[in-house]
Amino acid sequence: MSAAYVAGVGMTRFAKAPDSTLKTLARAAVQDALDDAGLTVSEIEAAYCSNATAGLITGQEMIRGQVELRPLGFSGIPIVNVENACASGSTAIHLAWQAIAGGMHDCVLVLGVEKLTHEDKSRTFSAIGTAIDVEARAEIEARLGGNGGDSRSFFMDLYAANARRYMDEANATREDFARVAVKNHGNGTRNPRAQYGGDLTASDVLDSREVVWPLTLLMCCPISDGAAAAVLVSERHKARRAPFVRIEASILGSAVRAPERPYSAARNAAATAYEKASLGPGDLDLIELHDGTAAAELMLYEVLGLVPDGEGARLLAEGATELGGRIPVNPSGGLLSKGHPIGATGIAQIAELTWQLRAEAGERQVEDARIGLAQNGGGWLEGDSAATSVHILARS
Amino acid sequence: MSAAYVAGVGMTRFAKAPDSTLKTLARAAVQDALDDAGLTVSEIEAAYCSNATAGLITGQEMIRGQVELRPLGFSGIPIVNVENACASGSTAIHLAWQAIAGGMHDCVLVLGVEKLTHEDKSRTFSAIGTAIDVEARAEIEARLGGNGGDSRSFFMDLYAANARRYMDEANATREDFARVAVKNHGNGTRNPRAQYGGDLTASDVLDSREVVWPLTLLMCCPISDGAAAAVLVSERHKARRAPFVRIEASILGSAVRAPERPYSAARNAAATAYEKASLGPGDLDLIELHDGTAAAELMLYEVLGLVPDGEGARLLAEGATELGGRIPVNPSGGLLSKGHPIGATGIAQIAELTWQLRAEAGERQVEDARIGLAQNGGGWLEGDSAATSVHILARS
Lengths: 396, 396
What we know:
The structure is a homodimer.
Chain A: E1 4-11, H1 22-37, E2 46-50, H2 54-57, H3 64-69, E3 79-83, H4 88-101, E4 107-115, H5 121-128, H6 137-144, H7 151-170, H8 174-189, H9 202-207, E5 210-212, E6 215-216, E7 225-234, H10 235-238, E8 245-254, H11 264-277, E9 286-288, H12 294-303, H13 312-317, H14 334-338, H15 342-357, E10 371-378, E11 387-395
Parallel strand pairs in A: 2-3, 2-4, 9-10
Antiparallel strand pairs in A: 1-7, 1-8, 4-7, 5-6, 8-11, 10-11
């Protein structure tokens, strides 16, 4: 397989952006990524476009990428439209990596864009609720013991159930979860593209509106609009911009059958990624992970092998995952603070790693960052994430 | 790049199947393909799943492939959900080919499934109508001069406008279109998996209900439910079943900007496919092409280089594209007779080529078929197909 590099990245600010459209968001992110790579539209040989909900929210289904890219002047190139719930973006990155690493193309675009806000909020929640087996919805809701109401509550019921289980098994507390939110919002304050941010205290987080016990509003990722893009290239194109960011591993997985614990797919993907990249968690300088909730971040410390099971909260409490710590996690602010426009999130994680590895992350720069990992998860199927991916990138 | 082979294929009968679900259709096609390949679920390393409308018709979005494959026992493998309007199936084949040819995997599954029928027909038509830039719908409809009604009419208005233009430019007649329908329905009669079939006369076709002049009902592909699947493998797995069907070219394209004529993307894809496979139209033994309407088939004869522009009707009249002719086209019955469950169509074309190249096509067998081409198109963007693909397969 050939080496694959991230030549350029771009993203809009994530926000509730009622006046934006899929097209305006896409244009901004793609233009950013092309400018960053020093490449033009005519040099792009193929595009992998990720979006999860436009069909249900804006009514644009089937050829979303073509419609978003056309105003930028793209003509004739292969365009693939990809969905994998909240892991749609990293799935698109994975396909682009396959095209470069497999020698099919030398220069490809990845675009993720999502317009989640809608004047009718129920439309947004109902779209998000399709990231499960919809035929099993009633049964799942009954099992979770949620309020049986809208789809928003379904995923929050699910996350809350995972959080309660983690509290039991790992002796984690709501204060631990609050500390994650404080950290990530603090990071987000240093990220001009983050939706939220602020110097919160644990009390601010604990006192915010309860979503589903033990989760409060500030422990849950927001509803966001936004786009992110990346240009991936082969060795042939790589000389255009130094320092180079190389993809050391690109792993995609799906829900494991009868998993013994949540995040089994992510655990497997991480193990495979470490193996492919010939390194381990101790070699990482930073991580962007899928903190759909604050509790998830702690669990993912363990899933990614930073600490043994049950010690996630300890790692946080030691300050290891803060900026300046041993292994900063979500320096971008993560989903909690940066926002979570579903199809863009996995690509935004790659953008953050790229900026960090090129030492261009400004106030949130991780010192001497040479190796970074991104973990992105999406959907829910019988006890595991329906889709999950792990990417490892290195400065080279 | 490594060689990629089609190790097995399967499909349901295409039909209006109100009692079927995405899951039951998928299970039948996948089990067929696995049995045909002599492989089991545990040997599949990744899956590429195509569907165009489930989010809008059945409410299942985002993780369609995971939901469809789970009951069959798949666990943990990479699953990618792909959309590209009516070319979704061939796009999934293209991604699977990339994974094998690029050396990422040795054995992958492609699944396309579509459930178009719904008790509320307007839901089906409205879903089909998302294969354009939905923001431009009103403008396109006005330009086409259609009835401005439902989405079904939109695409039929479009196809009819193309057909009228072709009648002017190529001196083609409605009788020519009728002959295409007669041929394909005749072929479909020999295909147990075809939705329709029958020994029609040109008068039967001309006398059927007018959809939009010059197109009658029997000149237009039907609304269908169905699934198709294929297993693609590398050299390592190929020995399991002879004769071998090798993928000589897998080309995907999108709408060309400001095209001089319809099907520019398909024209380019065909030229590239011939170049990659080091052969020309004269080397082909059979073709499966995207006869969304009977008129489209004649235009595609020219687009694929079988004859110069304007001579499609002559080729048909000579009998060259009939079974037993020089270059049989749509021996399966094509979309017109076999049916068109959107996400399954491109994979069903590959299934037909595979059966033909292995001399397993029964009553519709093309004698000594060694090289076949499949052309699949989807959606509409500013005068061209939004997505298009050409595959060339050879017995080896």
